[in-house]
Amino acid sequence: MSRAKLLVTRRVFPEVLEHLERVFEVQSNPEDEIWSMQALREKAAAMDALFVVTSDRVDETLLQACPRLKMIATGSVGYNHIDLAACSRRGLVVTNTPDVLTEATADMAFALLMATARRITESERWLRQGHWQRWAWDQFLGTDLYGATLGIVGMGRIGSAVARRGHGFGMTLIYANRSRAANEEELGATLVSREELLARADHVVLVLPYSAQTHHIIGAEQLALMKPTATLINIARGGIVDDAALAQALRNGTIAAAGLDVFENEPALHPALLELDNIVMTPHIGSATRSSRLAMAMLAARNLTEFFEGRAPLSAVALPAA
Ligand code: DGY
Which residues contact 99 (CB under 8 A, 6 or more apart)? Predict the structure, then answer.
C-alpha cells in the first residue's frame, strides 16, 4: 500500500524527519528555502498532510490547490496563520504545539523585560563603541523590576508562567483577560480592565493570541495611558501592537522602553523602530531553546503520525465533525 504524502515546509531536526519517514513519504526542505505562495501551492498540491510553521499562510487559495489534504500540523502554539474556518469546512484536522514551549517563552518575556528595563543592550552597544571613559551616578538609569507592578495581558498558559516568575521578583501582579483565570488565586494576580492595567503597571507583558479582535489593541491611545517610565514587552504576535504608534511613543517619551520579539510584518521591521535606542529587539526566538524547539517539532510530528496511524492527534485545534 502506498504511504501518505507529507510536505515539511522548513528544515527540521533529523530525529523528527526520521520519525515522520517511518509513516510518510516525506518531501522536506533541507536547504530551508523560503517558498513563495505559488511555490508552496505547487509543492502542496499532491499532499495528504502539511507540516507548516508560522510564516506559512494556510488560506483558502492554498487549500483549494490541495484536494487530497487531510491534515495540517503547525510547529507552533499560535495558529493565526491558518484559516481555521476554511479547514473546518473541508473537514481537515489541524494541530498545534501547546505546553512544550510555555516555560521557554515565559523565560524570554523576563529576558526581554530585564534587558529593556535595565538598558542592557543599549549600554552594551555604547560600551562596545568605546564611549566608556568614567563611571557616573546617572549612567544608564533604568527602572526597577523587584517590587514593581507587572501587568500581564492574556492569562493563558504562558501568561500564568510569566506571573509565577513575577513572584520571584516580589511583583504586584495584575492581568487583563477575556475572562477571570481559573488559577487566579494560585497566581495571586488581580483581574483589571485593560485600561486600568495600562495605567497602573510599571511593566506590561503581552501574551495573547493574535486575531482580528486583537489587531492593534495597543496603539497610540493605549500607549498614552501608560506611565512615562513604563516598559512594554511583546512576546505574543506582531500586529497586536501598532509598530508605527509604538515607535512614535518611544521617540516622544510617552513610555520609557519596549522589548519586542515579534513584529507586524516580520521579518521586515518598521524602519522607525531601528532608529531608537530605547528598544530591545529579538528575531522571534521566544521558544528558541534546543529542548523546546525539538519538543515542538516532535509534538507536531507525533500529531501527524498518530492521526495517520488511526489514532487521535495529541493536540488538535480542529477535528472533522463526528
Ligand atoms: C508559537 O509557537 O506560536 C511561536 O510564536 C512560534 O515560534
Answer: 157, 315
Is 134 among the catalytic positions? no
Q: Are residues 231 and 131 in the same domain?
A: yes
Whose Cα sits closest to atom 1 in ligand 1? 76
Q: Which of 31, 21, 86 has the alpha carbon at shortest distance from 51?
A: 21
Q: Which of 119, 237, 293, 302 is catalytic?
A: 237
Does the active-site annotation cover 270? no
pLDDT digits (tens, 9 = 90+) for 112-162: 999 999 999 999 999 999 999 999 999 999 999 999 999 999 999 999 999
Asked if the model's pLDDT at residue 1 lies above 80, the reply is no
* Domain total of the chain: 2
Number of continuous H segments (helices) and E segments (strands) in the chain: 13, 13
Provide the residue range defining the domain that includes 225. 102-281
Regarding the beta carbon of 292 and ligand 1, being less than 6 Å apart is answered no
* 258 touches 246 (CB < 8 A): yes
pLDDT tens readout for residues 169-196: 999 999 999 999 999 999 999 999 999 9
User: Residue 131 burial by CB count (10 A; 0-12/13-18/19+): exposed, middle or buried?
Assistant: exposed
Residue 282 per-residue DSSP state: -
